[in-house]
């Protein structure tokens, strides 16, 4: 039996991953046991999974957690971009220090096992590791020049994940997720939250605030694609990654205007009319520093695939969240 | 009066910096008070400086230290490359976690002062942030792709230093020192230790071990140049740095063979005969992943200057260490 740990298992993607693992197993292997670690869990929530409540910055709790030597670890937990920009302390503590501490604890288990324990580790990084000026399509060898606290923290995390892989402590890979839309539920503190909001709220008959201009271009994938990326990354042969264990995932590059047109195609003018334009300078400034398009050749060559257009991304939301 | 803190003030460069500040002040300003923080201090040591004994990984000690709100902070403390590669735990704890924690504590003081406290912060990074394959001369926009634990840790440190600068928490700059030679005193655990050893030991009439081949090319500056870089960096207008507050310092690019010839020029064949070739695979492997030459245009444009050849570097050692 394979034991799977999802750190950040109470979050949106963690829950979707837990549901997926419970329904379909991990890459075809259904003989698995899933444990979720998070500060809080949604009511109801993913079935057939153990839940451990704790804080990533609680070094004792994380040390104890890792003593169980899970075969596969998904590390999804993070302070989101908007909160990391608003609060220097908590962002650097959780996304920086705590991730390094997690790596040290994992190495401790590896060393205690005399090298026998080498888990698969999939860490979710972000395209925020890149900063402007950007080329039209960002190549895989784009330098890491983040211009936000969140991005800087994710670079730190990529560094220790890569180092663990290089040293054979874990079969490690960091995947840089596109901005995942359409997120179900309520807005969060991520500066990117509106990208989901302008689709989700109107589809649910509610007003949504658009804080940026229509020509903002960004990089997206659905939660379903994100879960697929995570599972595929867990099954990857690390030898295929070479010296660089951070992979930019594929996505859909489109403007806010194109997203609104996709919504209009699927749900009509009345739905689109629920989007209210309320420019927000802070969000505009953060988003202006974000990448707009990628050429993720390495991930594509390894078989990773996102949606091909924004209509598909909206349809995934309708199928997975509204048609239930 | 300007209050200056040197974290790592007991080390070789910290002591030389303290001596320099005591003799000449900081960029012409002699109304300064110098405090050194380190685990241990050499006997005798730099004059007229307060000494505080503590460990960088002791979060309480660092928090207390920073409450004194120094005007200028030099952060030189690190676990050296060889030790960081040998010991995953201590390298990531000190060079990774503890540096992030230091940044958080500094931000706490900045915030408690309602933004009035904005110290100058000079952090010593390393050319180990770069990894192969290298171009002939590494440009300033070379991507950060470290292939050692030490290099990965220095990237993390650069990330939080840059973030502090971006947010106006400190007038922050990270300088990537060349490999500093000729270090006085005894060999240390840095994989680069032999670069000093093959000059220092023969000049002192002792045998030295050369663990790599003569055609190894590397990037060097003297301790005197390193101290000059530090002081200059402390006086730099951060606005000149733009979005990237990490600067590769100038240096001398030369092969081991050229270094040995420089020693022969200055000290003769008998001295050179004290160099014994004893290939060491671990050191060869680490050094093979190190940069060999740079084109540090940004630093040069800002007025930073190293020596121009290796003869000069040896002469600095003779003047500063042997002629006393």
Key descriptive features of the protein:
homodimer, 324 residues, alpha/beta, Rossmann fold, UDP-galactose 4-epimerase, domain 1, 2 domains, 7-stranded parallel beta sheet, 3-stranded mixed beta sheet, 42% helix, 17% strand
What does this protein structure show overall?
Two copies of one chain form a homodimer. By secondary structure, the first copy, chain A, is α/β, with parallel strands linked by helices. The first copy, chain A, has two domains: 204 residues, Rossmann fold (3-Layer(aba) Sandwich), CATH 3.40.50.720; 86 residues, UDP-galactose 4-epimerase, domain 1 (Alpha-Beta Complex), CATH 3.90.25.10. Helices cover 42% and strands 17% of the residues of chain A. Chain A contains twelve helices and twelve strands. The first copy, chain A, has a seven-stranded parallel β-sheet with strand order 3-2-1-4-5-6-10, sandwiched between helices. A three-stranded mixed β-sheet of chain A has the order 7-9-11. A two-stranded parallel sheet of chain A has the order 8-12. Chain A is globular and about 60 Å long. The two termini of chain A are 31 Å apart. Chains A and B meet through helix 4 and helix 5 of A and helix 4 and helix 5 of B.
